[in-house]
Amino acid sequence: MAIYFFYSKAGKVVAVEKDASAHAGWLKQGYQKEFEEVEAATSQAALKRFHDIRAEQDKNIWAFATGPIFLSLIVLVVYIFFT
After folding, report:
1. For 49-71, how does the pLDDT look when each residue is reduced to its tens digit (9 = 90+)?
2. What pLDDT score was predicted for residue 20?
3. What residues contact residue 17 under an 8 Å CB cut-off, 6+ apart?
4. Which of 32, 83, 52, 63 is closest to 5 using CA atoms?
5. Cα(46)–Cα(77) distance, rounded to whole angstroms?
6. Among candidates 2, 21, 4, which has minimal Cα distance to 13?
7. Which of 48, 4, 36, 2 is closest to 22 using CA atoms?
8. Cβ atoms of 4 and 38 closer than 8 Å
9. What is the DSSP string of the chain?
């Protein structure tokens, strides 16, 4: 299994096997290196894992944003009706 880096440009994500010479080429083409690195058998498997990681991050952000808001609304309703 190989380690893959990810480069993105205008919503397109490319998985590239870890290689120092390829890094400069992708940057020259205007791609931005992503933080994640994945160990996978193929580039398609690496891209699937990358998208799974990003989807999980989006879920975490949504849960963090909505959890306190929902709890605050419940507390407000209880305060209004029971005081």
Report:
1. 988 888 887 777 776 767 777 78
2. 61
3. 2, 3, 4, 5, 43
4. 32
5. 47
6. 4
7. 4
8. yes
9. -EEEEEEEETTEEEEEES-HHHHHHHHHTT-EEEEEEEEESSHHHHHHHHHHHHHHHHHHHHHHHHHHHHHHHHHHHHHHHH-
